[in-house]
Amino acid sequence: MATAATGSSTLATAVPGRGGLARRSLLAGTAGTLLLGACGRDEEPASGPGSRPATTRGPQELVVGASLELSGRWAALGVLQERALRITAATLNAEDGVPVGNLRRTIRLVVQDNAGDPGLAARQATDLAWAHGVHALVGGTVAETAMAIVGVAQKLQVPYLSLAAADGIVLPLAQRTYVYKLTPDAGDVARRLARLARAEKLRRVAVLAAHGLHGDSGVRAMAGALEIAGVDLARTVRLPGAADGDPTWAAERAVEGTPDGIVVWGTAPDSGAAARALRRTGYTGQLLFDAGAVAEETLSESYLSAMEGALVVHPASLGGSTLTNTTTAALARRDFVFRYIREYGGFSGFAPYGSDALHLLANAARMAASVDRGRLRAYLQNQVTEGIAGAYAFAPIRHGGMAADSLGVFTVANGAWVRVS
């Protein structure tokens, strides 16, 4: 298979030396055989809730709709994903598009700004599905907007790849058959954080979790993971919602009794604000973060001194590919990072999710030889592949596809994320 630099429109498949990925591929392929056999081969959606013909879709296009947080509180996350989507679409289109059956389809993005408003995100998803006739949806970098899109995607039967972190996005699976999540599962991140706390000899740990669905996932996952790791949970404190703002009270509550470490489970910019509030109480213990902390804003001047020395669990793409430089996935990642830095002057580890989403959809269309929404869904849920952010292992029984072995541990040193393990 060629790389992105040499003409491929797909992500890399399993590579030598990654036995776990190969085994996941075999299981996923076996589990999906009956489902794929039941799918039709129509090039456009058949009759059903999502079948209304569009007036703005070209006959040789793969149309992807994106509802992103391009303004407002979460713009630091949404803008990264828009950049990644546009870079990847331009790259694939420069290679003559995506081979789908006997056609080569150009990728066309329809991007809308939901400003972090779940109601607006739901309306945009509906508009993208009906008026624009998109073949798939991407977006929602925070759990609340993602969940709003979930309802529309499921009702209209449009494949949806979420860029947000919250286990409820893809659970219960019976009610999320058209929904996929690219970010790591809370349980995988929590287990890595708990093992890290034990390795750092932290005996008592407090959890300071964001308000909302993402924080809910973290609270549940950390309680179980810390117990298994033999680390005492000192207390759990919730950060205020976006409307309440100031995290000072929550920080003061979290440091009561001086725990050895504090896990901050949230999303930028809340993560950096929580770190600053904790340090302002005089707390000097170890700070640990889930993957949601990773954004340029977290290491901005406002939060940098508070973040120095903090530990974070994040997909290994944050600090460089885990693969050798000669593998297809490593070369594709290097090409993406080069293009991203050339256009925007810097690179964020959160950015690859958007790129991977587009590659996964292109891969599904190529394998299905169709852009039928039902067939795209079926081929998405049987993809086991190495992407830019990490490895994905979708299966009919698992729509949260980021593999646990894609995670690494990083620290903040001299104002940068540096890989520890």
Automatic annotation (TrEMBL):
InterPro entries xref list: BCAA_transport, Leu-bd, Peripla_BP_I
Region (Disordered): 39-59
Gene3D superfamilies with a match to the protein in the record: 3.40.50.2300
Domain Leucine-binding protein positions: 63-411
UniProt keyword annotations, A-Z: Signal
Pfam families from the UniProt entry: Peripla_BP_6 (PF13458)
Family per similarity comment: Belongs to the leucine-binding protein family.
Record protein name field: ABC transporter substrate-binding protein
Organism: Micromonospora echinofusca
